[in-house]
Design a protein that fits this description.
130 residues, mainly alpha, 434 Repressor (Amino-terminal Domain), 2 domains, 8 helices
Length: 130
């Protein structure tokens, strides 16, 4: 099944009309139809991210990757600094890669930083999942 078919299927499962999704996505109805019938096959990453939010799904599911019981799931988002720090401490390379100093960040910045990392992981992880 192609991504367009999955977009349409998930949209219908959620009880959303083409008009509703197109409006929320800020594209024309014809553009959304072209996504759904795969005449536009290279959907921009920012559109995929927005679609996932609108359809309440993940990029992985939208791309057709199966999730099994032993597949670790990324959290949807972080709401507090403790959760964000626990996530980042498991993967300190994220903070070290850009030279960021977690110790100098306030709680709000830590949560924003972790949510941004999480968002980027979700967008690109489908590409490498087998």
């Amino acid at each position: 099944m192609e991504i367009g078919e999955r977009i349409k299927e998930i949209r219908k499962q959620r009880g959303l009309s083409v008009e509703e999704v197109a409006e929320q996505l800020d594209v024309s109805i014809s553009t959304l139809y072209r996504y759904e019938n795969s005449s536009i096959s290279k959907i921009p990453v920012n559109v995929i991210d927005k679609l996932c939010n609108i359809l309440n799904t993940t990029p992985s599911e939208l791309m057709g990757n199966e999730v099994t019981a032993d597949t670790p799931e990324l959290p949807q988002s972080f709401s507090n600094a403790e959760q964000a720090m626990a996530f980042m401490l498991k993967m300190p390379i994220f903070a070290a890669y850009g030279g960021y100093d977690i110790k100098s960040m306030d709680d709000k910045t830590i949560v924003e930083f972790a949510n941004e990392i999480l968002s980027q992981l979700k967008l690109v992880s489908y590409k490498y999942k087998k």
